[in-house]
Design a protein that fits this description.
The chain is built from eleven helices and no strands. The protein is mostly helical. The structure holds iron/sulfur cluster.
Length: 252
């Protein structure tokens, strides 16, 4: 009896073309390295804009930030974290009062529920400490892969690439890391970002997206990588002068 043909191969052993090929990245390795080098000159030590005082408050702040702005979350959490900066204190405060503190944030009812549930879970399963692995973090109510990546990077210094709306847009618009879903874009970026730039890449991309390569209309004349960018949407090939950004666009 004939051996069955291996999957995706014809009887002659050649590929039949049923495997989806990943499109070639249009950037050379040197170009990618140069893009991140310039981002590093603009923002040598970028930071997230969500205020927090310890890993626990960071988890809460990131979980609250879904479909909300960092500024809006900070406004609400400043008072909340003054009275509750540990899982114990959050539980003592209770869901109704947490809800009052965060009611200016979208989806606050559900988020208040999650904050209480994740505080309980931290006490029950992790001795009140925020765990460091993605697998453990994503067991917490309201914590998905993106939140886990942000917490791992910002609280524990573990290089990850959380994909938010800006990172997703830049991956596709610049054709650096195309993908339909955040997971696809994350995987594509992780394949190309030079290791020594990975730690800050998340913030560089977010801040570049927030302040320059904006959603509605990219401001290419202010862009330091305009000569390298291969976006069909770019409006100039002349890069802006490379210099450290002023504090208000630095991400502090
Ligand atoms: S050149 Fe324009 S489209 Fe390209 S990264 Fe810069 S701002 Fe975005």
């Amino acid at each position: 009896m004939d051996n069955p043909s291996p999957k995706n191969k014809s009887r002659s052993g050649k590929r039949t073309g049923t495997v989806a090929r990943r499109p070639r990245n249009p950037y050379s390795k040197d170009e990618i390295r140069e893009i991140f080098r310039r981002f590093s000159v603009q923002r040598p030590e970028p930071k997230g804009e969500l205020e927090h005082v310890n890993p626990f408050t960071l988890v809460v702040a990131v979980a609250l930030s879904a479909q909300a702005t960092d500024v809006g979350v900070n406004r609400a959490t400043r008072a909340l974290f003054e009275v509750a900066d540990t899982p114990e204190k959050m539980l003592a405060l209770g869901e109704d009062r947490v809800r009052d503190y965060i009611k200016t944030i979208g989806l606050y009812r559900n988020k208040a529920k999650n904050v209480i549930a994740l505080s309980q879970k931290l006490l029950d399963d992790f001795g009140g400490e925020v765990p460091k692995t993605r697998e453990e973090l994503t067991t917490l109510p309201g914590v998905g892969r993106k939140t886990a990546n942000v917490v791992m990077s910002m609280a524990f210094g573990i290089p990850t690439l959380a994909v938010d709306t800006h990172v997703l847009r830049l991956g596709n618009r610049m054709r650096l890391a195309p993908g339909k879903t955040p997971d696809e874009v994350e995987a594509a970026f992780l394949r190309i970002i030079p290791e020594d730039y990975l730690f800050h890449a998340h913030h560089w991309l977010i801040l570049h997206g927030r302040y320059c390569c904006k959603a509605r209309k990219p401001e290419c004349e202010r862009c330091v990588v305009a000569d390298l960018c291969k976006s069909g949407e770019k409006t100039t090939d002349i890069p802006a002068t490379l210099a450290e950004m002023p504090a208000q666009e630095f991400g502090v």
